[in-house]
From TrEMBL:
InterPro entries, alphabetized: Aldolase_TIM, GH, Glyco_hydro_27, Glyco_hydro_27/36_CS, Glyco_hydro_b, Glyco_hydro_melibiase, Melibiase_C
First-listed, main subcellular location of the protein, grouped into a coarse class: secreted
Origin superkingdom: Eukaryota
PROSITE patterns reported for this sequence: ALPHA_GALACTOSIDASE (PS00512)
Record-given protein name: Alpha-galactosidase
Amino acid sequence: MAATLHFAFVLALFTGQAIGVNNGLARTPQMGWNNWNALGCDVSESLLLDTSKKLVDSGLRDVGYNYVVLDDCWSDGRDENGFLKDDLKKFPSGMSAVADEIHKEGLLFGMYSSAGEMTCARYAGSLDWEANDAKSFANWGVDYLKYDNCYHMGRFGTPKLSFDRYKVMWDAINGTGRPMLYSLCNWGEDYSHTWGMSIANSWRMSGDIYDSFTRPDDLCSCTDASSPFCVAPGSHCSVLNIINKVAPYVDRGQPGGWNDLDMLEVGNGGMTDEEYKAHFSFWAALKSPLLMGNDLRTLSASSLTILNNPAVIAISQDPDGRSVARIRREMNAAKDKYGVGEIQVWSGSLYGGDQVVILLNAAGEDARISASLEEIFLHDGPEGSAPQNNEEWEVYDLWANRMEESLAQKILDAKAEDLPKLFKDANWYNSTELSYKEGLKKKDARLMGKKVGTIKPGGSLTAKVKRHSMEMYRLKSVGLGGKRKVHAKEEL
Ligand code: GAL
């Protein structure tokens, strides 16, 4: 073990690549599905098995969503030896059999508990039962643990208290010898973005998301998670609230450990198509885990064509693992019905020296948004000193090749035997055959989007952006043809 750690450390120095925890998981943000946002406590064996089948038949597994995560409300107290019992009314075959079925579909199985005496929905929690519960999860064949924060019996209030409480489960999981992705759900409390990466593959940085783009809500009164006055992370946090909260520490995400912006709301009905596109694009570009939060049994064609966009998923799964950063925030644009009028520009580096740019219009009216190369490459040198400022760039729109809804509907309606041909005709991106890393190396056209223009040296990117919407682009340097050595690439 010491030798492995030492090797990883030397490799990190050599490649300049940050490393997170050394369990080998989540080298890119995890992808999958979780029941909570759409279904809450309404969980069952059939839900998990039907969802697993749908993940396969809709092509979503192959595009990358491979974890099926069961949230709260699955247990039925502890037995006389102190082990959690699964609720046999909800899961008649037992968890182990459910895990087997999920694995047979080529998927991985996630479960939930809380670092408290109870879970948030008041089922038995794992605090002080960590060794037992980790053993149960390992015996059942669990691959992922989401670990919540309710009823922690006052063991919080400093980073050290929270860190120690969460580390007990991390050690217990490792003690089982079964690799499990460890996903902290402590809502950003006690600055989890400063210590999460030492013991976990992801850490929530906000109270719970809800299905609204900009609506402020008293239940999510924290607007700055790093403020000591943020005592109640809350439960009604809009997409914009979460984006604004993570902005000061986007750089804490790294291969192996990610800022978790919470599960997706795409498909749950509270936002427009443009808002869902923006929500999904930001979660990808900010390197959040991408866990779908809709009921896949009733997946609509329009949701499928958002969730399956390989050009956007390739941003999430970029091997460099660097989040976009905000380079401009204007707060005085035309107000929407909640009094919100924000325009933002975000930019970040990608594999091979490409750059992703998002122009966000979270205001009440359509707007023309412009960003100069000087701004876009601010992080490579301020005031126009970045070499990229003097290059010509091709601009690729990452949503221009979005799948036609009629084709998505055909896939959703198809019989199993017709699916292979449909996926072939749709030129479906199958990441189980060609990983995103390999696809990017080969410049696979499906990951690049559609060329819509160029930017001359010293020039700007300008677009008309509809209200409550965004435009998202991949920029490619013409001269360098993607060969720039921005970061060491030995690993790639
Ligand atoms: C919350 C958590 C949610 C969900 C819920 C279950 O604390 O943030 O994502 O897991 O508990 O009760």
